[in-house]
Design the sequence.
């Protein structure tokens, strides 16, 4: 079974803090993704990575950065957390290249972040 | 560009009734289509996917979806709802050469006894 794990299920931070959300997958997937999920807005892509040290902006990258130093790990960083970043954050991974032709993504359980 | 529209943010059914969740897509090239389910406080789980083989796709938990190119639709159905089907359902689209999925806004399915 593909397993995608996220470092925390619930997180509470203060405005201005630097926040790290960690994601690890154990299936040797090339692609990894960070989404945020808000009621009525569905899933919105923040960043994705198709290889180690590679990253691409998604639809809403402002206020976020990412790091991928190892294939299995993809970190989302909030440089200075703000209240409008209170949300559910979901990590996902998928195969790349021809093996990942259909792009099925596997999701972690999510981190519910509250910024006070 | 590609997009997905899910009609109805909430759908209510009685236990044992037909479930129909609507998804329409827009894509300039042949699409790959997915339905995901999200139970409370969990991540998304794949229900089924269309990848240009059979137009009627069967998934887990008794769900199925039919790809209709003429209607640009990929509606999700289940003949008889169960209480455990209560969850949020997301339709997503991509195509060959793309690494990312475009998701709809989701439909919350409510099942009453």
Sequence:
């Amino acid at each position: 079974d593909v397993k995608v794990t996220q470092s925390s299920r619930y997180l509470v931070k203060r405005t201005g803090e630097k926040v790290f959300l960690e994601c690890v997958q154990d299936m040797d997937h090339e692609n990894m993704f960070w989404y945020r999920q808000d009621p009525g807005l569905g899933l919105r892509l923040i960043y994705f990575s198709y290889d180690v040290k590679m990253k691409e902006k998604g639809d809403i990258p402002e206020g976020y950065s990412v790091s991928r130093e190892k294939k299995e790990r993809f970190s989302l960083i909030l440089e200075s957390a703000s209240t409008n970043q209170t949300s559910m954050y979901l990590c996902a991974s998928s195969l790349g290249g021809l093996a990942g032709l259909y792009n099925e993504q596997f999701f972690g359980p999510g981190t519910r972040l509250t910024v006070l | 560009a590609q997009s997905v529209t899910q009609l109805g943010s909430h759908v209510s059914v009685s236990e044992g009734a037909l479930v129909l969740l609507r998804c329409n897509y827009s894509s300039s090239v042949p699409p790959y289509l997915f339905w995901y389910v999200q139970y409370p406080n969990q991540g998304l789980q794949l229900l089924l996917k269309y990848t240009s083989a059979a137009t009627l796709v069967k998934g887990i938990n008794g769900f199925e979806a039919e790809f209709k190119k003429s209607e640009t639709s990929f509606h999700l159905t289940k003949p008889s709802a169960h209480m455990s089907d209560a969850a949020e359902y997301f339709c997503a689209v991509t195509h060959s050469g793309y690494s990312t999925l475009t998701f709809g806004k989701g439909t919350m399915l409510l099942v009453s006894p």
